[in-house]
Amino acid sequence: MEKFTTKRSLFDKIDSILEKHNWNKNNLLAILLESQSNIPQNYIPEEVAKYISIKLNIPSSKVYDVITFFSALNDKPKGKHVIQLCKSTTCRLNKYQKIREILERELGIKMGETTGDGEFSLEYTACFGACDISPAFRIDDKVYGNLNETKIIEIINSYRRINHE
Ligand code: FES
């Protein structure tokens, strides 16, 4: 998908997304998700949040409530792929800490950080229902479980290959 790098083209695109959703504030979540997918670094910049709040005639605090509530929305720049490691009960019992160590070592970043090339962000998440294949993480919307070192390296390398094709 084409990402918009100039302000003019970005705000034209936001207008078209608002238009598609009938400038309806009840569609705020869908508007934000679609806007984010069109913005480099996969997040909603402050100026975009304000723009949408003005155009929909709602307080910007309401826009931020939605951004902070939904884990798929980001208010800070993120990598092209977001790796979310579960640290809820079953994954804790199955030693998610070991998975964290492998991910941090392979990517060269700590939890909460983004790789220097902008390809991966690493963060924790709560249980997403994959307890039967715990320990587990998600990359974007795809779930991976029964993780071990070999499998993690294979998964990361498969994304690196995709990114360089
Ligand atoms: S506890 Fe980790 S996926 Fe459920």
**Bound ligands, each once:** FE2/S2 (inorganic) cluster
Mean pLDDT across residues:
92
Amino- and carboxy-terminal Cα gap: 15 Å
- Give the helices and strands as they follow along the chain: HHHHEHHEEEH
Percent helix, as a range, is 40-55%
Strand adjacency order, main sheet: 2-1-3-4
- Spans of 5+ residues with little confidence (pLDDT < 50)? none
What class do helices, strands and sheet pairing give? alpha+beta
Radius of gyration: 18 Å
Question: Using DSSP, what is the number of strands?
Answer: 4
In short:
By secondary structure, this protein is an alpha+beta fold.
Question: Keywords, please?
Answer:
four-stranded mixed sheet, 47% helix, binds FE2/S2 (inorganic) cluster, 165 residues, alpha+beta, 11% strand
Describe the structure.
The chain has 165 residues and is of the alpha+beta class. Helix content is 47%, strand content 11%. The protein has helices at 7-20, 28-37, 46-56, 60-69, 89-93, 96-107, 149-164, and strands at residues 81-86, 120-125, 137-139, 142-144. Strands 2-1-3-4 form a four-stranded mixed β-sheet, covered by helices on one side. A hairpin with a 2-residue loop joins strand 3 (137-139) and strand 4 (142-144). Helix 3 packs across helix 4 (60-69). The longest helix has 16 residues, at 149-164. The radius of gyration is 18 Å and the shape is elongated. The model has no long low-confidence stretch (mean pLDDT 92). Residues 86, 88-91, 127-128, 130-131, 134, 136 line the site of FE2/S2 (inorganic) cluster.
Reconstruct the topology from this structure.
Blueprint: H1 7-20, H2 28-37, H3 46-56, H4 60-69, E1 81-86, H5 89-93, H6 96-107, E2 120-125, E3 137-139, E4 142-144, H7 149-164
Parallel strand pairs: 1-2
Antiparallel strand pairs: 1-3, 3-4
Helix pairs in contact: 3-4, 6-7
The structure holds FE2/S2 (inorganic) cluster.
Residues 86, 88-91, 127-128, 130-131, 134, 136 line the site of FE2/S2 (inorganic) cluster (FES).
